[in-house]
Amino acid sequence: MSSPISPACARPEAGPSRREVMAAGAAGFALAISPAAAYAAAPPALAELIGRITGGAVPARGGIVFDIPQLVENGNSVDVAIQVESPMTESDHVRWIHVIAEKNPYPDMARFHLGPRSGRADIRATLRLATSQKVVAIASLSSGGYVMADADIVVTLSACIDGG
Prior knowledge:
Elements (H helix, E strand, L loop, with lengths): L17 H16 L1 H7 L1 H12 L5 E2 L2 E4 L3 E2 L5 E7 L9 E8 L6 E6 L7 E7 L5 E9 L4 E10 L9
Parallel strand pairs: 1-9, 3-9
Antiparallel strand pairs: 2-4, 4-7, 5-6, 5-8, 8-9
């Protein structure tokens, strides 16, 4: 004997079920936090930012260590460490290190000026990130070349909002 369904439990004919809504939400969340999906959405803007900083030169990969957490609970305070392999002599040194966060309201986040007297090319800083995004560190060398490293960062609580 089957029991009758109470009107409170009956599913209305129109609209998705709770299970369908939850499944769609989970799929959207997985897509939203995927670093590959986030980078695929805006590579021209990032390439343009890098080109503006390097004067159109293509930075080499390697020779730079970019230490930043891949998962950040709070975008208001993200600790980073950037180290560039360089003897820091008069003839061979790092001129500056630039940090870009592609989806921040102001993507050109920081520029650190260095020279032979700096002793070493080692920067520690705290950044604010607006949302999950790719963050890039670019170093300009005295030889005229550039080196870069990047990281995809997932931010669970955003820090910046547009216009403020």
